[in-house]
């Protein structure tokens, strides 16, 4: 079973929300999960309605018990990884570079390393997450049962995760080389699963298919596909066929009967019909499109999970709702 | 225009897209915004529209969806603008499009600024190869570099730029500066010191702190990587001045009067939050903001019918059916289901002569039989028509809820930034991947539906 869950997806698909819901869902029966953010957006803090996260692991939520109440919830901790701080910590931890670290910072070396040097930033971010995955307490137990990463979007995910390979190739010896290789060992092991979040729309689905292919080619384990913001089909083509076969008068009468005005030509109910039918056509077109996209996703051959659209947007209650939904769909 | 406006609603000035595109002084349009809001599509649609209105346009895209790129004939990455076929050129305009190849762009800078030997040394340096292949910031820097080049060519009278899908939407503004500050920094001098002065004699010029630093760096990076970086920095040395100048020039170009920034967003909380942030940042950098493009805005041709009333009516129809079924089966209609909610709601409707007028008393009617007025119409209303009508009403209620949510989100933005002109683009049911689709988006951009408008204007 994976312990590092990397959640990616095209921009706008809600990957931060899904990552947060997953961290909650995995925190059952006293389990402890860590939700990490790597892009400095403070999206997690906004979702959990708390102040901005510092560079520090802190408890952010208590996960819900199971619906029956028989299984207790666990804890979700959160961390916003800052590359610069991660580098300084890392230098301190391994090289005791206290003052030299500050001197490097003064020189602009830390800035160089975290913004311009190829890939170092990404090495630091993934490195910190892997460290949390491997960390054990005094009794030799893992501190976190699972680590969930709100990762960069699909277009950059393979490069982001695979950067350590590249860095290990650039720095052929030395601590950076060793660190990069250690991170890669975790990322390519079954301990890791990359989940891709998508909507039932053409571009995100295409990116998901491309992303799965790239990740597989790089030897990084892919977990599941999360189809986010699904909407129920209220009408289908069958209903539209009825409308097309001249049920117009009948519908006008029904609307009128429901108290929406006159059914006569030009009456209020009658005037509602065209716009309502137009909306129905758009809806049916979308449902049709979604079916096709769904089939494409199924064809990828990975487990899929579905999360419905929350009409009022995702607040804290919505997040717990999504977490329960994920749990119901089995282990992810 | 908005000074005395007390309501938040619709107080934003309209963004006149055609005025912006037609103005010969507009030379650069930069589309920015968070991921997944339709930036690339907006940039392409603006390009098609401007070209068909008579301008010579080039669209610089960063990472277009495959089918969109194909539709514009730029599926090959060769870093050169290609003329897009199928555009109506009768007004004297033309559309060119290109997809950024960041490695090629970087290589070209090197080749253009160093003599052949030095250029080869740089291009073969492993550190350079990684840097140019697109790590943090490179794509942003190269996009701005390419923009500078296109502008310098002066071959087009309008350049439309799509910005990279950055980790933060603002990265492309920072990248040139960041590179510049690095190049000016002390660190680079430390890096260059050994390679430049070389040997023990040179070490005398370095103070102890610096030599300790290179020692530390060597320990951290491994001797070979440090050497690669040093060779790279030394080889690039002569080009740095050029880099710096170009980064500064591009930055000034973005502030110049001929440039217009369009912040693109969808009517969703996160996208608009990012948009607000962007608006503030552009102001702080004195970058000229033209307005906000709000994509995928939903409308309804029946917006006079509220979600609540539509739902109540749908329920009434469903209940009516249930009762009919009861009646058919000979069971006693013992429950008190009726259409009171819908009936009550009808008072402010134009009556059309056939509605039940005792709405106020509807709730007190005894359960069971339909009201006399309804009874007249129940007979000819087939069950399937009633079911269909209920479905249409539920769908409409859902649409009205979406509308209300989008409006609230938009109003929150407008309240914060009432000065920003807004263009709202009606949502299309499907994805866009051909010129006709881009043209339709362009029409909707220019039409800029206000909330009183209907959406289905194009059918």
TrEMBL record, chain A:
Lineage: superkingdom: Bacteria
InterPro entries: ArsA/GET3_ATPase-like (IPR025723), ATPase_ArsA/GET3 (IPR016300), P-loop_NTPase (IPR027417)
Gene Ontology MF annotations: ATP binding; ATP hydrolysis activity
Record-linked PANTHER family: ARSENICAL PUMP-DRIVING ATPASE ARSENITE-TRANSLOCATING ATPASE, ATPASE RV3679-RELATED
Stated name of the protein: ATPase
Cleaved signal peptide residues: none
Domain ArsA/GET3 Anion-transporting ATPase-like: 5-187
TrEMBL record, chain B:
GO MF annotation, one: ATP binding
Region annotation (Disordered) ranges: 316-377
Any single Pfam family the record assigns to this protein: ArsA_ATPase
Coiled-coil annotated residue ranges, if any: none
Domain ArsA/GET3 Anion-transporting ATPase-like: 26-298
SUPFAM superfamilies in the cross-refs: P-loop containing nucleoside triphosphate hydrolases (SSF52540)
Residue ranges, compositional bias (Basic and acidic residues): 318-329
InterPro entries: ArsA/GET3_ATPase-like, ATPase_ArsA/GET3, P-loop_NTPase
Protein name (record): ArsA family ATPase
Species name: Streptomyces sioyaensis
């Amino acid at each position: 079973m994976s312990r590092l869950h990397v959640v990616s997806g095209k921009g706008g698909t809600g990957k931060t929300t899904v990552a947060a819901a997953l961290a909650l869902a995995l925190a059952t029966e006293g389990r402890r999960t860590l939700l990490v953010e790597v892009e400095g957006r403070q999206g997690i803090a906004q979702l959990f309605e708390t102040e901005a996260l510092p560079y520090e692991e802190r408890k952010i939520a208590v996960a819900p018990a199971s619906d029956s109440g028989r299984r207790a919830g666990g804890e979700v901790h959160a961390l916003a990884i800052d590359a610069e701080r991660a580098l300084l910590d890392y230098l301190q931890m391994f090289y005791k570079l206290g003052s030299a670290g500050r001197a490097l910072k003064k020189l602009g070396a830390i800035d160089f390393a975290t913004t311009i040097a190829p890939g170092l930033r990404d090495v630091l971010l993934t490195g910190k997450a892997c460290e949390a995955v491997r960390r054990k307490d005094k009794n030799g137990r893992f501190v976190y049962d699972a680590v969930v990463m709100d990762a960069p979007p699909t277009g950059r995910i393979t490069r982001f995760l695979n950067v350590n390979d590249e860095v290990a190739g650039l720095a052929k010896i030395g601590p950076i080389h060793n660190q990069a290789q250690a991170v890669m060992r975790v990322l390519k092991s079954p301990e890791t699963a990359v989940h891709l979040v998508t909507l039932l729309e053409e571009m995100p689905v295409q990116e998901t298919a491309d992303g799965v292919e790239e990740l597989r080619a790089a030897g990084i384990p892919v977990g599941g596909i999360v189809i986010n913001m699904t909407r129920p089909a209220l009408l289908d083509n069958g209903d539209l066929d009825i409308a097309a076969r001249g049920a117009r008068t009948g519908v006008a009468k029904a609307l009128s009967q429901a108290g929406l005005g006159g059914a006569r030509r030009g009456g209020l109910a009658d005037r509602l019909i065209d716009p309502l039918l137009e909306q129905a056509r758009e809806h049916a077109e979308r449902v049709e499109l979604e079916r096709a996209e769904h089939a494409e996703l199924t064809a990828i051959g990975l487990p899929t999970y579905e999360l419905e659209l929350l009409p009022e947007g995702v607040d804290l209650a919505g997040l717990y709702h999504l977490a329960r939904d994920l749990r119901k769909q089995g282990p992810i | 225009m908005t000074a005395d406006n007390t309501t938040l609603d619709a107080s934003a000035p309209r963004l006149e897209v055609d005025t912006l595109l037609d103005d010969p002084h507009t030379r650069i349009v930069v589309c920015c915004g968070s991921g997944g809001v339709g930036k690339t599509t907006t940039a392409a649609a603006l390009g098609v529209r401007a070209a068909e209105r008579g301008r010579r346009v080039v669209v610089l895209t960063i990472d277009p969806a495959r089918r969109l790129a194909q539709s514009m004939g730029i599926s090959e990455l060769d870093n050169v603008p290609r003329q897009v076929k199928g555009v109506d050129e009768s007004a004297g305009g033309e559309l060119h499009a290109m997809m950024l190849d960041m490695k090629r762009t970087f290589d070209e800078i090197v080749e253009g600024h160093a003599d052949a030997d030095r250029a080869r040394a740089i291009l073969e340096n492993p550190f350079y190869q990684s840097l140019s292949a697109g790590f943090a910031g490179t794509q942003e820097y190269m996009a701005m570099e390419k923009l500078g080049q296109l502008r310098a060519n002066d071959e087009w009278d309008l350049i439309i730029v799509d910005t990279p899908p950055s980790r933060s939407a603002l990265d492309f503004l920072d990248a040139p500066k960041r590179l510049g500050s690095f190049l000016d920094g002390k660190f680079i001098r430390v890096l260059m010191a050994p390679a430049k002065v070389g040997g023990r004699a040179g070490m005398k010029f370095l103070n102890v702190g610096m030599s300790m630093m290179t020692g530390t760096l060597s320990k951290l990076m491994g001797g070979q990587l440090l050497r690669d970086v040093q060779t790279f920095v030394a080889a690039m040395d002569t080009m740095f001045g050029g880099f710096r100048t170009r980064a500064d020039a591009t930055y000034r170009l973005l502030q110049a009067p001929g440039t217009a920034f369009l912040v693109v967003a969808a009517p969703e909380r996160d996208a608009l939050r990012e948009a607000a942030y962007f608006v503030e940042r552009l102001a702080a950098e004195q970058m000229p903001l033209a307005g906000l493009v709000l994509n995928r805005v939903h409308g309804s041709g029946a917006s006079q019918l509220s979600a609540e009333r539509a739902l109540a009516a749908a329920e009434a129809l469903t209940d009516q059916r249930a009762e009919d079924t009861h009646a058919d089966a000979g069971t006693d209609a013992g429950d008190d289901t009726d259409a009171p909610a819908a009936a009550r709601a009808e008072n402010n409707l134009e009556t059309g002569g056939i509605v039940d007028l005792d709405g106020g008393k509807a709730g007190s009617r005894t359960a069971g039989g339909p009201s006399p007025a309804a009874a007249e119409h129940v007979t000819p209303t087939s069950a399937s028509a009633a079911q269909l009508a209920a479905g249409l009403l539920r769908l409409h209620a859902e649409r009205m809820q979406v509308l209300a949510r989008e409006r609230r989100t938009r109003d929150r933005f407008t309240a914060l930034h009432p000065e920003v002109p807004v263009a709202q683009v009606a949502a299309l049911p499907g994805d866009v991947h051909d010129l006709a689709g881009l043209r339709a988006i362009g029409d909707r951009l220019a039409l800029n539906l206000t909330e009183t408008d209907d959406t289905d204007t194009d059918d």
